[in-house]
Amino acid sequence: MKLPEVIEPEPMATLNYLNNGHGLASWLLTRDHKRIALLYLAAITVFFFIGGMFAFLIRIELLTPAGDVMTAENYNKMFTMHGVVMVFFFLIPSIPAVLGNFFIPIMIGAKDLAFPRINLLSWYIYILGGIFTLTAALSGGVDTGWTFYTPYSTAAANSHVITAALGVFITGFSSILTGLNFIVTTHRMRAPGMTWFRVPLFVWAHYATSLIFILGTPVIAITVLLVGVERVLHFGIFDPALGGDPILFQHLFWFYSHPAVYIMILPAMGVISEVVQAYARKNVFGYSFIAFSSLAIAIIGFLVWGHHIFVAGQSVYAGMIFSVISYIVAVPSAIKVFNWTATIYRGSISLDSPMLYAFGFIGLFTIGGLTGLFLAAMGFDIHVHDTYFVVAHFHYIMVGGAIMGYLGGLHYWWPKITGKMYSESWAKFAALLVFVGFNLTFFPQFLVGYLGMPRRYHMYPPEFQVFNVLSTAGATVLAVGYLLPMVYFTYSIFKGATAPANPWGAKGLEWEIPSPPPTENFAVTPIVTHGTHQYAPSKEVGVV
Amino acid sequence: MASNNGHHIAPISLYLSVFAALMVGTILTVVVAKFDLGPLNNILMLAIACSKALLVVLFFMHVRWGTRLTWVVAGSGFFWLLILFTLTMSDYMSRGWVEGTLR
Amino acid sequence: MSDGYPQAPTSGLPGRMAIHGGGNPHDGHSHPHHPKLQHHFDDMAQQAEASTLGMWVFLVTEIMFFGGLFMAYLLYRYRSPEGFAEASNHLNVIWGAVNTIVLIVSSLTMALAVRSAQTSARPKVQIGWLVATMVLGAAFLGVKAIEYADKFEHHLVPGPNFRWEGTYSAAAEQFYSLYFCMTGLHALHMVIGLGIMLVITAMAWRRQFDATYYTPVEVAGLYWHFVDIVWIFLFPLLYLIGYHYGAH
Question: B97: pLDDT confidence band, cut at 50, 70 and 90?
């Protein structure tokens, strides 16, 4: 099996999706999924930094035990806005709207998604939702927690709840339209010969994610709508004073918000599946197991939401059911971790920055996932519910997992998206900072949470200070790690080396078209005769 | 050019029959509701409503002649609702089953 | 492509053999196609299948959207079945039944509208069925307006002005909260449906639909039938649960 031949870099002057049409209108009215992906990239990056700024303020307050930087009410607003912005405006859209939008059509050999105009509409809806949410933040903030628990959110909190809830409601439709587009595209737009089991695992991951978009998002939509109805019209749905049931809110809220965490992790897992193959130069181990595990995670993930309500008054028997199923849902994730490990084993590994992020993902996601199992045990959860243990658990998954997946994917596909190479040494350094900073930030939180420090408090007993100082120090390192890519990616656009079509020697339809791709992706619709990832095991290169 | 994209064209008589069945179902559900049949009231009401919905889905919405994918998509929506209902009610209906935990 | 053109694909194809790569009639290739074919699709069949699948996926989201309200209904009715029955008695079954019949007829006219496009009927015929559907939809909304006005008059709107003369006051307020939320959301969907119908009728007026292209009518029909199905459940659940106690 011959190694990929060196491909001469193509001059940037050729027509590609970036220079095919100039001016603001050609971007803001585009139907090209690749341009829409970049519109999302810009918006998501802005929201990431806004959410990060709130995190920074939280960590500044928590440097000292006393609540001396801000009032308790303002602190409540900080963690609320941090959560709302990061969950709804960064994590949920990030990989699907940027990398999914860009690559799903290319990976299946199509010219675009099934509904290009709906794709553009989804971006505008996202922006509109974002405007509402930022308005809530700027006009005084919301202090209910991103979970909007009733009756506080419907009866007692300030009026910006409506604005923020509307922001979440509107943005939900952006997710729904994206999911709808991905599902129809994957079913109906695959190129000749591109059977389901030849499709890249990245596509499988997004298909599974889209199932959650479709089946889950509408439930939170109606839930926040009802919060608004209760606030404004005083209909008693969730407020006990009006005859409502607050646990009903929690059931409805978590019916979506638990599967939402799988929305955040499945696409990242899809990225990892692609990256480990490329940088271990090996076919993934157990392709169909990973594909089916993606579906299993999406489906079983809908059956576990009660593990958020163990101590809120839910019945013990329902708790037992949710607990058992929460253990079961870990199995497909574990299968994936084993399979990625088996892929890397005896592979021809290059430690380029995307692979560093993949390694980070596998380790940190495993820790986050295992601590999820601790929490799924009701007896343990009683002690650590609403402590920093939970905070650490979900940040290991969302930051150690999802964000690392996102960064890994951005680095892996950057040459394809922009036609430029970034500085690999700076990228490695940034990856290292992210890994070190992340662990320094969040590992102490497992410990201090176990010791009893509650979450969402702006003050704490003095014996917890050392953990918080470590955590804030880590957050500073992490922040630098996140800022660096902004710098070197931007630099690469102006001064980076021109990227060839396939800088990594990777397999996949996206690497067979120029960097950056032409607007129509393929000059001629490809006919696929084999799975797109056919790496040979490298017998001649350093196999132990 | 293909005349109808491969879509089945149902005869008008079929639509009228379905319409008649829907009307019958409506009358039936009102009549049945007038009598106190205990738990049977709910069961019959749901059965009639589901049958009417099924008729609309199969014939007016053409699922009867559609792809299997359409069946699966349509069915999954209703199935997912059942998940929401069942698991949530499993909480409410089992409260107080363990000594001392009644809310 | 770098591999050249390989041999014909094996079975399990998605069925698209459009090697020409699509494109529009103006880019100089020999394969003419329907003016309504969007360039990223290979042929009209694929476009139509994608559109109807897309609408079905959207309807699943609508099922889940209404589903949250049905969940609240399920819980509160489970908690106070007699209260809900008593409250339901104040709804006028005649109006509810009339509305049910109106919507069923409108589904029939909608199905016939789709059929008329499928069979390339004259635009006047297509428009006739579409307008009939809209008139029935508007009638539905008119009846709902009458009902809502009646509720306002009798202090049955939850909130500070709610007054209940029966036994189960709390459950009644609960019931009417759900009544207004569920029928209100449904009515909103009817209004949107009317808007969609106006657009489709305008397109029919411009003679855009025939046997080769009627997807917008079909897709609008799917939405309309869905809104009918929601009402098929709302009617017995809201209007008929206390009926055997003697209606108001």
Answer: confident
Tell me which amino acid residue B68 is. R
Q: Pick from A5, A113, A184 the residue to mutate for testing the C interface (most C CBs within 10 Å).
A: A184
∠ CA A272-A363-A97, rounded to 5°: 35
Query: pTM of the entire structure?
Result: 0.93
Contacts from A323-326 at CB under 8 Å and sequence distance 24+? A323/A376, A323/A377, A323/A378, A325/A300, A326/A372, A326/A373, A326/A376
Domain residue spans of chain C: 66-245
Q: Is the pLDDT of residue C1 over 50?
A: no
Per-domain boundaries in chain A: 25-512
Percentage above 90 pLDDT, chain A: 92
Write out the two tokens for A529: 């005769």
Nearest partner of A286 among A175, A212, A197, A346, judged by Cα? A197
Q: What pLDDT does C12 receive?
A: 36
Structure ipTM: 0.92
- pLDDT tens by residue, C16-71: 433 333 444 444 455 678 889 998 999 999 999 999 999 999 999 999 999 999 99
CA A439/CA A492 separation, integer angstroms: 29
Read off the pLDDT band of B3 (50, 70, 90).
very low
Residue A142: its H or E element: none
CATH 2.60.40.1120, applies to C66-245: no
Position with higher pLDDT, A428 vs C10: A428
Task: Say which of C19, C20, C68 has its CB closest to residue A219.
Answer: C68
Q: Which of B68, B87, B92 to mutate to test the interface with A (most CBs of A within 10 A)?
A: B87
Contact A208, A118 (CB under 8 A): no
What CA–CA distance (Å, rounded) separates A257 from A250?
Answer: 10
Supply the DSSP symbol for B83: H
For chain C, give the mean pLDDT.
Answer: 88
Which DSSP string corresponds to B23-57? HHHHHHHHHHHTS--THHHHHHHHHHHHHHHHHII
Indicate the DSSP class of residue A22: -
Please state, as a whole number, how many other Cβ atoms lie within 10 Å of the Cβ of residue C135.
14
Q: Which residues of C touch A234 (CB under 8 A)?
A: 158-160
Alpha-carbon distance of C189 to A506, in angstroms, equals 48
Residues of chain B in contact with residue A310, where contact means CB-CB under 8 angstroms, are none
* Nearest by Cα to A443 from A405, A401, A389, A484: A389
- pLDDT number for residue C188: 98
Task: Find, among A209, A138, A208, A134, the residue nearest to A171 by Cα.
Answer: A134
Q: Which helix (H) or strand (E) holds A97?
A: none
Residue A542 per-residue DSSP state: -
Which residue, among C43, C217, C138, has the nearest Cα to B61 in the 3D structure?
A: C217
Q: What is the pLDDT of residue B1?
A: 35
**Helix, strand or coil, per DSSP, at residue A238:** coil
Contacts of A219 in chain B (CB under 8 A): 84
Residue A9's pLDDT is 56
Domain covering A25-512, topology: Cytochrome C Oxidase; Chain A (1.20.210)
Nearest to C240 among B23, B30, B78 (CB): B30
Using 50, 70 and 90 to split pLDDT, how confident is the model at A3? Answer: low
Question: Which residues of C, range 158-187, sit inside 8 Å of B by Cβ?
Answer: none
Nearest Cβ partner of C14 from A180, A194, A217? A194
How many angstroms separate the CA of residue A311 from the nearest CA in chain B? 12
Contact indicator for A131, A47 with CB cutoff of 8 Å: no
Q: How much is the mean pLDDT over chain A?
A: 94
Question: Which tens digit of pLDDT belongs to each residue from A518-541?
Answer: 999 998 889 998 877 778 654 433
* Contact (Cβ atoms closer than 8 angstroms) between residue A79 and residue A145: yes
pLDDT for res C29: 52
